[in-house]
């Protein structure tokens, strides 16, 4: 399996790692088939993601996709973060082996789950903005929900 230089860079030196104690949006997703788990923490002020951190348990591609996704959404409006797609993540890394494309999907879903959690905390139905965030392979949920 060959990784791009950009993937290796984000794996060896991931950006925005850790927890955000004052996060107001937290999303966690996992893939039961591969065991990867991503947790993304957002600090949103006036509709802008002012800070973002992640903790990922998984392979190098999972760590790299988490890292690059945080860079892609930091400083952006919520609406822009919601437009983040797995293709955008893959393109930003210069590609991923086909066997690792699911990692980019997890990164996209983790961002959506964190935004959904933010809306729930604001008393707003997240489905209006995020859509349904649950399917058979990738389960999205906010903080405090059963993420099994």
Name the descriptors.
148 residues; alpha+beta; Sufe protein. Chain: A
Give structural notes:
With 148 residues, the chain is α+β, with helices and mostly antiparallel strands. The chain has one domain: Alpha-Beta Complex (Sufe protein. Chain: A). The chain is built from six helices and four strands; from the N terminus they run H-E-E-E-H-H-H-H-H-E. It has a four-stranded antiparallel β-sheet. Strand 1 and strand 2 (37-45) form a beta hairpin. The radius of gyration is 14 Å and the shape is globular.
According to CATH, the fold-level topology is Sufe protein. Chain: A
Helix content: 25-40%
Strand order of the largest sheet: 3-2-1-4
Q: How many β-strand stretches?
A: 4
Strand count, sense and barrel status of the largest sheet are: 4 strands, antiparallel
Name the overall outline.
globular
β-strand amount: 15-25%
CATH architecture: Alpha-Beta Complex
What is the element string, with H for helices and E for strands? Answer: HEEEHHHHHE
Q: Low-confidence spans: pLDDT under 50, at least 5 residues?
A: 135-148
What oligomeric state do the depicted chains represent?
single chain
Briefly note the structural class of the backbone: alpha+beta
Span between termini: 29 Å
Domain module tally: 1
Radius of gyration: 14 Å
- Count the DSSP helices: 6
CATH class, named Alpha Beta
> Average pLDDT value?
88
